[in-house]
Design goal:
Elements (H helix, E strand, L loop, with lengths): L2 H14 L6 H12 L6 H10 L6 H13 L3 E5 L5 E5 L7 E5 L5 E4 L2 H13 L10 E4 L13
Parallel strand pairs: 3-5
Antiparallel strand pairs: 1-2, 3-4
Helix pairs in contact: 1-2, 2-4, 3-4
The structure holds zinc ion (2 copies).
């Protein structure tokens, strides 16, 4: 998938849902799918401001919801009640391990996790659409934990 295909997916989605098609929404799309790592709506808004965008905070919030609905980005919850997003563009499906001591986030892929969520959905008579899997940990080796180097 390239940026143009991503824009087509968004444009189809907006048309189908009778949402307004505005250039600002495509500006948010480009910023969101190219953003490295995890981000909150405010972080993306500030990032765009710093790149001389005039997009409003409300537009960023609303567009991120639309991009999540059409699966161009994923919504992540890391247990702190903050909505974080992540681009699905050029990226593999992955899960997260989070350190409660230092806040480090490690991404991993393990086919067993994927298999388990598919099996459970099938066994209960559903087809899996998406899932969320987080492991919360504490640093074993405190010398490697940035939190303890403060
Ligand atoms: Zn840690
Ligand atoms: Zn991630």
């Amino acid at each position: 998938m390239n940026n143009k295909q991503a824009a087509e997916i968004l444009s189809d989605y907006l048309k189908k849902g009778k949402h307004r098609i505005t250039p600002e929404r495509f500006e948010v799309l480009d910023a969101a799918i190219e953003y490295e790592g995890h981000f909150t709506a405010d972080e993306l808004y500030i990032f765009m401001k710093n790149n001389n965008s005039n997009v409003s905070r409300a537009t960023v919030y609303k567009t991120l919801e639309l991009l999540t609905a059409c699966k161009l980005i994923s919504l992540r919850n890391f247990g702190d009640n903050m909505n974080r997003y992540e681009s699905n563009f050029k990226r593999k499906q992955h899960d997260h391990l989070l350190c409660l001591d230092c806040g480090r986030i490690v991404e991993f892929t393990d086919n067993k996790v994927n298999k388990i969520q598919e099996d459970i959905s099938e066994n209960l008579g559903f087809t899996s659409s998406s899932y969320s899997f987080n492991i919360f940990v504490r640093c074993k080796n405190k010398a490697n934990c940035p939190h303890y180097n403060d």
